[in-house]
Amino acid sequence: MAENSEHVCGAKDSEATTEINEINGMTTEPANAEGEQSVPVMTTVERAELLLAQDEAIRERIEAGATLDEAVDPSNSEFGPMGHPEQVQMRVAKRAMMLKDGENPYPVTLDVTDTIEDVRKKYDGKLEAGQETDDIVGVAGRVLFIRNAGGLCFVQLSAGDGTKIQGMLSKKELGADSLKRFKQLVDLGDHLYLKGRVIASKTGELSIFATEWAIAAKALQPLPALHKELNEDTRTRKPYIGMIADENIRNMVRNRSKAVSSLRHTFEEHGFLEVETPMLQTIHGGAAARPFTTHMNAFDLDLYMRIAPELFLKRCLVGGIDRVFEINRDFRNEGVDATHAPEFTMVEAYEAYGNYDTIAKLTKELIQKTAMDVFGSLTVTLLDGTEYDFGGEWKQISMYDSLSEALGEQITPETSMETLAKFADKLGVERDEVENRGKLVEHLWEHFYEDKLYEPTFVRDFPVETSPLVKGHRTKPGVVEKWDLYVRGFELATGYSELNDPIVQRERFVEQAKAALAGDEEACDIDEDFLEALGVGMPPAGGMGMGIDRLLIALTGATIRETITFPLVKPLVG
């Protein structure tokens, strides 16, 4: 392999990346000519030890005076197909050569005086082609492009936000030995430090004319081809690669951070206090969801991963914290699709002396301010290029009234199970094993409306059977004061007038417990500690919950995997 010629991130690096297909130390067996698996899968420890042995063998060759080409084993004759690909071996050899010559491939610190972003802001558009300054800067970034042209080399450095700047390295300025070493050691993907004057090249490109250079961190794995779109598997399994290669992925991380910051700021403006509640719980509750279970060795106790923080946040209301919220990680052992993930982030908030009307107003404000803070407008542009408007008045409909309209027959909380089941069977609506009138009403409503409510719409007044923590409606028996907010055909948020009557709450818990015993895996258990807290006295309150991931979906048009920085994916095994 040539030690470094003109080097653009392209086919060779991409091919090398394809060869590196290990997940958590497990490697798929390559097939022989007959398609049979001929290489045994190694354990994680065995694989790691083999790679360490190969690293050491390369270093020993370099220490003994071998060239880079002599140090690598293109055929992998010594370590076999389970060893490093040739590209990685070459980079390991360059690392070894630096160590041999007393250079640290991973220095603790460098004299970085300016960011690439700051240099761009200060000089962009202010220098004519060929103009030079006497301003000395020290910058660092990831190498995305190298062109070696005799006595003058060009390198493109990228900051973390994608801002790029050109570096120019000349034999006249650095000396022949330094430039030769640059050509020999630096690869795409390395973090590189440059110190030099700020100039504009002959073509007008803002550049750093280097008087010094150093590798800030040697990359042993090659980058993928940056001119090609990443496949979905790489994007989700190796999001750090996606952040390097795809501006949209970097922007999603930043926009998510801005969204969370905006939510916190709006809550602060309204006098809400942020708290933290337990992730490990002895009783799962606060939502209808199947939990993850775990075991605590110290107490020899089975525990549940939090599905919602609701019952603990309501304890805060009991304790006198009248406006409280939490941005929390939740875990639900359920299906995975474009809007559902087993681990996700949600915001929940509770307001003493509020109700589902006041909390709806707050939720609308939270969403609209987030749109303004992240994108500067209530009309956002989605990934497919279409626009979506979060402004104006938001529509409100009643679940029972809208279902009656769709079925052409009046449906009320008193409508019999037989009648509801007849409609479900006629429409082919799937029914749960443990069913009740409320669940059937919701299933029928979802059949007609769930993915069809495009504009922001509050769906109000739900069946009491499906809402065990919600206060009964002031004027409608069998209905609770709950709304779900739908945006672009999916549920974004939910809000309640919170149930604070301990006797009614115990009745609801008992019904849920019976459903759980009958096989309903989403039903909650009886939480006597929470009932005792309610007995101390919880003020009337409005409460809301909204998925942060879903908020990003609504604002961008992405899928939930694209909004989560490190989504959970099923490991690949041999």
TrEMBL record:
UniProt: Mg(2+) 2 binding residues: E491
Domain (Aminoacyl-transfer RNA synthetases class-II family profile): residue spans on this chain: 256-571
Record-listed Mg(2+) 1 binding positions: D484, E491
Transmembrane segments: none
Catalytic activity: tRNA(Lys) + L-lysine + ATP = L-lysyl-tRNA(Lys) + AMP + diphosphate
Top-level taxon in the UniProt lineage: Bacteria
Biological processes per GO annotation: lysyl-tRNA aminoacylation
Cofactor detail note: Binds 3 Mg(2+) ions per subunit.
GO cellular component, one term: cytosol
GO terms for MF: ATP binding; lysine-tRNA ligase activity; magnesium ion binding; tRNA binding
Keyword terms of this UniProt record: Aminoacyl-tRNA synthetase, ATP-binding, Cytoplasm, Ligase, Magnesium, Metal-binding, Nucleotide-binding, Protein biosynthesis
Locations listed in the record: Cytoplasm
Cofactors required: Mg(2+)
Coarse class of the protein's main subcellular location: cytoplasm
EC number(s) given by UniProt: 6.1.1.6
Family per record: Belongs to the class-II aminoacyl-tRNA synthetase family.
UniProt subunit comment: Homodimer.
Protein name: Lysine--tRNA ligase
Organism: Bifidobacterium gallicum DSM 20093 = LMG 11596
